[in-house]
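> @MW can you paste both from yesterday?
MW: sure, first one:
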Amino acid sequence: MQNVCKRSNSAIFSRDKASNLIPGDQDPLQQNFTETLPTEMSVRIFSELDVRSLCRASLTCRHWNDIIEASDQLWRSYCLTVLAICRREVDGDRLVGCTWKVTLVRNYRKGCAKRRWLKGRYSNIRSADDIPPNSMCPLDVETWGEILEAELDR
């Protein structure tokens, strides 16, 4: 049996004053809100989302993705509020030219690795071969100092 798509791209209609459908125009009720608003307003709306929702929204459609990816100010606020490794790390990423989103992702991963080390998840490791993959990332001297102090306290 052949699969048939029930959605037709060629039949786009809109309503005229008498609520009759006119071929060729898009129904304003089905129009993407970000296409009707100024970009600044869309960014303001997206700024109300948490990071997970923002990432999911960027997958919704190409237009939303373009707005979210192009808006460095959306990612800046999250990057500065997330538990980053060190302000020096953030500043270093920015000096190199990383976007706020890249800086956020890098520092989030570093933060996760730091928390796992500080919780003692890797306390019983006997050699470098025993370290699980994805548990290491470049950390600054201060962070390694904190980890070493935690290990010595254990």
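MW: second:
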Amino acid sequence: MKPVASARLQAVRIGKIYQNAVPTRVGPPSGYGALLKRWLFEKAEREPQKPLGPFRADVAALAAPVPATALRATWLGHSSMLLEIDGRRILTDPVWSERVSPSQLVGPKRFFAPPLALDKLPKLDAVVLSHDHYDHLDPAAIRVLGRTGVPFFCPLGVGAHLRRWGMPAASITELSWWESARLGDDFALVATPARHFSGRGLTSNNTLWASWCLLGPTHKVFFGGDSGPFEEGFRQIGEAYGPFDLTMLEIGAADPEWADIHMGPDHALTAHRLLGGGPLLPLHWGTFNLAFHAWRQPVQRLLEAAGPEVPLLLPAPGQRVDVAAGPLNSQWWER
């Protein structure tokens, strides 16, 4: 691994509140009244007009042993990704519930059913969590996964949620930015900076948020979680641990009203270039209505802006991708 620069960015904690490493505005500059008017009156197709799917992952194929030099990815929707990397299986930000909300009666609802049932998941080596927002941390999924004995890796403070939901403390590893944990002798998980915020219910920023570097003996993967534009942060991560064989970055739920905390497609491409390395597999789009843009807009803009120099992996939900096979455009959102 390359050494991390001494001036690396750090999250700041003042009292019980975590702060970003650079000035970051979370609230909308136009105010929440203006957001409500947009929500009520703007006409973008924020949800599919026709049902999507059903999508089905190949349960038998996913259950087979993971080769020691494999790098495969199965997108399960939003930021939930099942990775097969160098003999391990790692699941990111598992969300299986119908709605991403404090209540399953109201709130953003799935566009399609999960392509793989929770009880059909293969045996996992780790679950990696980026932060505690409802669309990234699903207590129903956590409780099911916890019964399997899988270890959880999360940013500082997020472990309190897991313990409250019945996870044993011994199965939880909490890390600050630039701290690492081991999966065996030859595999490391490193929590790295992101520019975002946290909170469930009435609390905000009592827990940390993070991106992650998954560093195997053969392959390296970057999982961005949620982040706004953050050039110095991504540059430092790329210099420390890149280039990556696969980068996974958010492209959806972006808007000028929260320009500091979500990237959108164009800033995701900038981040990808700063991180260095192989193909970009976009996350955080096409699953829930969390913004004002049309639901297809993030991927359409990504395709326009990427150009031939950025290989894209755009699988359908549940479609298993062998990263070494090269770029993929399933166009599932057009069917």
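> thanks! The longest strand covers residues 71-75.
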